Amino acid sequence: MTPLLQVKDIAKTYGARIGCTAVSFDLYPGEVMGIVGESGSGKSTLLNCLAGHLEPDAGQVLFDTRSAGMQDTVTMSEPERRMLSRTDWAFVHQHARDGLRMNVSAGGNVGERLMAVGARHYGEIRSQAIDWLDRVEIHETRIDDRPTAFSGGMQQRLQIARNLVTGPRLVFMDEPTGGLDVSVQARLLDLLRGLVRKMGLSAIIVTHDLAVVRLLADRLMVMKDGHVVETGLTDQVLDDPQHAYTQLLVSSVLQV
Amino acid sequence: MIEITNLSKTFTLHNQGGVVIPVMQGANVSVGAGECVGLIGASGAGKSTLMRLVYGNYLAAGGQILVDGLDVTQAEPREILALRRDRLGYVSQFLRVVPRVPTLDVVAEPLLSVGVDPETARIRARTLLSRLNIPERLWSLSPTSFSGGEQQRVNIARGFAHEYPAMLLDEPTASLDAGNRETVLSLIEEAKARGAAIIGIFHDEAARDRVCDRQINVSDFTPEAAA
Amino acid sequence: MTHLYTTPEAEMNAYNFAYLDEQTKRMIRRAILKGLAIPGYQVPFASREMPMPYGWGTGGVQVSAAVLMPEDTLKVIDQGADDTTNAVSIRKFFEKTAGIATTEQTTKASVIQTRHRIPEAALSEGQILVYQVPIPEPLRFLEPSEVETRKMHSLEEYGLMHVKLYEDISRHGAIATAYAYPVKVEERYVMDPSPIPKFDNPKMEMAAIQLFGAGREQRIYAIPPYTQVVSLDFDDFPFEASKADHACDLCGADDSYLDEVIMDDKGTRMFVCSDTDYCAARRHAGHVGAQGIPEKESVI
């Protein structure tokens, strides 16, 4: 099996300050990787470098494209990269308003990616939108409502539907459950887990919430000050952490 | 099936002055197909630690653990996940599931993940739940709201749904009533009969004597320094 | 370059031909030529302050000023009419600053400046139609960032345009956009045709040159003669060039775009051609609508 994503020596600095450095890993189809660390550890910088939102100073991000095999997304042309981000990639933002068009109906939000890749049949776009709203547990009667009329959890689920409608193979998630009530979080996680398993998605999830990665991620990458300090199987890293920082992180979680 | 060679384990407590605690060294265990090995030893001697090492939940300090040819101490996360999915089962006393998933699906899931068709998987799940006396009216509910005993039995059903060639059993009969205890022991015997290699922890001596072919005292692996 | 009179009196009184100085006109002509070379592409230009407020056609006026020659005949319409305030003042502006001939007849004009209509009579080669454009960016209502919309144009990412049409159908059951209906030019750029009624969209494949000027937004774009202009739509909701289902009450035309006029407090309505020249020409030729009076009788 070949990796879906190969990250080689990614580095990004902001002036003298290190964003992230010397990050390398392979992600295989169907694998879900969590990146954990506290604020400022470089996990968001890394995610943005991987997703093409930031240009890394060094390193390669190789993605197994459908048409041409392994391609470095850092050096590929912008149109190609943007096409990837509309088709094979998805990005779930922490704040739903960053990932949704707030003045467009739920159906239009879900349909946008379809129309962006050439769908021109209103009826089909709409039935796909209904199907996806159903999958993220939004009733089809809400299809013509704008996201502004939705709760935070619903907005987040809508964002997920909007991202997954084109059947991407790799999903980037930046704190997908941040800012949501605990009960809403649980439902969202459950939903995400189901979708990831059912669609065989690969995903990279950035979070500081260890419960989120325990539930969703197959493996973990722990970051501190821009460096990867530990990687491994999720339950192994959480139950038998090796690095001082990971031990501190794990022991700092309040037990319920 | 399970070959443990010269295995050692230490815990380094970086946040408590970097204390290194050796908890196991020189562990050698071999379990063949159709064999059940019972781990014995005082509480804290390392029975659970050994199980967790085999399952890949703990990282070994040295040595080798071959499960169906894969060295768990060196394997990539995805290799361990594949091993756990296809070949290595683990039954603990505690159920850890996602909320909202019905009991029947919780039990059928290990089968679905190895590609068994949903209908066959559900039939198998129903059979197991019936044998473990989980009332049928509960099957469509999430087990998160069940009593401790019910949760334990759901967990056993789940653990025995797929016929793993290697299994780790952590106190599977603890606190079960006589009837359910009998069912679990039969399940273990059936697994042995089809050729499963099993490592188990049983506090229940009668159960241990009935299903285990050999017993290994993990105190033998306790390092000198810590003893 | 045109020479200016140099006597002090003349300097005080004379405008340069068509108001703008020659350097500015050259700058605008370069933008127009670039626009013609890349049909539908919005070319930025250094829009000047004009002696009229934004929204009154400052973009169109600058484009007209740049293309007018002393021998040109100018027609100016506002919503199809030659006799509305905006049309009259722009016509007078060029009469005064360029001293050119003006007309109300579509066929006699060599340059036609328009606000929100295309004349009914087919335009011919050699004519130039200048549109006044308020917001040149068709993607603007859904994407506020100019950086992003420029990128979308350059990468042909036009899915968003269909989102707008989708929203229309989901809310109204049909594409309710009735004016400024987006088009794709020569299978490349998506363009805002200015707020003309969608009835006029099919006419944009024409023999004349079409130039679009947006003064406040500082953009010029163009469609050369005989260029393909396709109105966007869905397979199951095809584009329709709709108009009021009525004939002109004055001239009886059933093929022209109509204005609905409320006649009294009781809701009596009248439909009349929005193109005043077209209507007048038909009446002159003897056509009479339901509420019309034959021309010979009406003339005193």
TrEMBL record, chain A:
Encoding gene, per UniProt annotation: phnK
Entries under PANTHER family matching the protein: PHOSPHONATES UTILIZATION ATP-BINDING PROTEIN PHNK-RELATED (PTHR42764)
Gene3D superfamilies tied to this protein: P-loop containing nucleotide triphosphate hydrolases
Record-annotated ABC transporter domain positions: 5-250
Keyword terms, alphabetized: ATP-binding, Lyase, Nucleotide-binding
GO-annotated biological processes: organic phosphonate catabolic process
Official protein name in the record: Phosphonate C-P lyase system protein PhnK
GO molecular function annotation: ATP binding; ATP hydrolysis activity; lyase activity
Organism for this UniProt entry: Shimia litoralis
InterPro entries linked to this entry: AAA+_ATPase, ABC_transporter-like_ATP-bd, ABC_transporter-like_CS, P-loop_NTPase, PhnK
CDD domains hit by this protein: ABC_NikE_OppD_transporters (cd03257)
PROSITE patterns registered for this protein in UniProt: ABC_TRANSPORTER_1, ABC_TRANSPORTER_2
Automatic annotation (TrEMBL), chain B:
An MF annotation (GO) of this entry: ATP hydrolysis activity
Family annotation (PROSITE patterns): ABC_TRANSPORTER_1, ABC_TRANSPORTER_2
SMART domains assigned to the protein according to its UniProt record, in alphabetical order: AAA
Pfam families: ABC_tran
Signal peptide start-end: none
Keywords noted in UniProt: ATP-binding, Lyase, Nucleotide-binding
Top-level lineage group: Bacteria
Domain ABC transporter: 2-226
PANTHER family recorded: ALPHA-D-RIBOSE 1-METHYLPHOSPHONATE 5-TRIPHOSPHATE SYNTHASE SUBUNIT PHNL, LIPOPROTEIN-RELEASING SYSTEM ATP-BINDING PROTEIN LOLD
Protein name: Phosphonate C-P lyase system protein PhnL
Organism: Shimia litoralis
Protein's gene: phnL
